[in-house]
Fold each of these.
Amino acid sequence: MSEKPRLRIGVLGSGKGSTFAAIADARATGRLPVEISLVLSDVADAGILEQARRRGIPAQHIAPGDYRTKLDENAEAAFIETLRVARVDLIVLAGFMRILKGDFLRAFTNRVINIHPSLLPSFTGLAAWKQALEYGVKITGCTVHLVDQGIDTGRILGQSAVPVLPEDSPDSLRHRIQETEQTLYPEILRQIALGEIKLG
Ligand code: GAR
């Protein structure tokens, strides 16, 4: 009997790639039944590309164009085409710091997920751990959600709580949230791959 083909994921990131590394390690140890088809970054020297190459996963930089917070038209088309050629079923944002809207989301309706370092709907946007600390909440955390046209507004797929400690600095809190993300994201991906979470 032929096996069901595995979910093919494409990972997009702009930073160090610690979240991606946790996903790749979960896959390598058999805990996560997906194929990581490729990793794309808008940042030429992003650690995430190096993390992928070290593991033998195709990794590519695509120049984002002149905007600071989004992709220009050519870059957006290049991202879409590259992900299509790789026959990716699901796009996993792991620290991708540009807003994806319009054509990109229409090309992959209900097929783009993100991890955000707060308990949404609180603290959307940048440096969410710092916003939580400044607000004075006693519990924050991280959220995996579907990406829609808004900023950090799509359907919530999973969350983990992280206590804010009296002695926390922005860095210590960010670090603990990131450790939690590294457990939550592979787990939610596993549930999607097994059909336990439906994306619609
Ligand atoms: C992660 O903490 C992720 O939650 C955050 O960027 C970090 C990436 O770190 N993403 C966002 O803030 C998206 N709005 P990494 O490159 O080491 O995985």
Amino acid sequence: MFKLEGRVALVTGGSRGIGRACCEALAAQGATVVVNYAKGEDKAREVADAIVKAGGKAEIAGFDVSDTKATEAAIEEIAKRHGRLDVLVANAGIAIDGLLLRLKEEDLARLFDVNVRGAIVCARAATRPMMKAKWGRVIFLSSVVGEMGNVGQTAYAATKAALLGVTKSIAREYASRNITVNAVAPGYIDTDMTSNITDAMKEQLAKLIPLGRTGSAKDVAAACAYLASEEAGYVTGQVLRVNGGMYV
Ligand code: NAP
């Protein structure tokens, strides 16, 4: 499909779900993929092993994106070792749901720390080598609820809406360096994050989705793979919605 041979891509939260599918999609295009994880080293290793078994190139890197020092040091080391870092998929994210009246201060802080501050810190560090190379791709994982809102997701939706402002600002800031910056906004995707949704709830949900089904991690990864590609070089500051038509 799209070509990424010779490129190095970092996918934060690449050990599971959408991140894992992104790692596999980018590796299939020829990129060397760095699979980041916070806690799931075994899962990350599984992803890298599967990629290598399929003939691709992958390695793992453990760091918590909310730990600025560790994140900056890890990204600097990756870029130094490979002599480049071309693609960042800022995918690492958490969801803590609950009605506003019950929203805890520490949950509010943690959501912003991981989903927003973590993504910005990754972008700040990853765009250094991209600026030098005058080529780069940054992709943030937003969400349909960042645009639509959702009952019980005030804080999570706020973090995902924030990433749209982040995307558009960095896109403007780095356009002259040939670095494109886009957001992918998935709808309801079958991963661990949404595993608390029962089959009955899924059936109800499907009625609200014109394409009649929830999405797969591969559906989202295909969008990320496109935005990471050479061919998407004239697309920047955009939000690519992968939501089955749920929000148009
Ligand atoms: P998931 O299955 O829960 O996986 C989350 C991934 O993020 C894991 O690899 C996890 O690694 C990593 N992670 C969590 N906290 C981290 C941290 N502090 N530092 C580094 N890595 C961290 O989630 P998902 O459903 O694939 O979602 C991926 C992204 O898409 C998220 O940003 C999410 O908000 C967004 N999204 C998801 C949906 C959906 O329906 N699933 C919809 C819209 C948007 P460890 O296991 O090592 O902790």
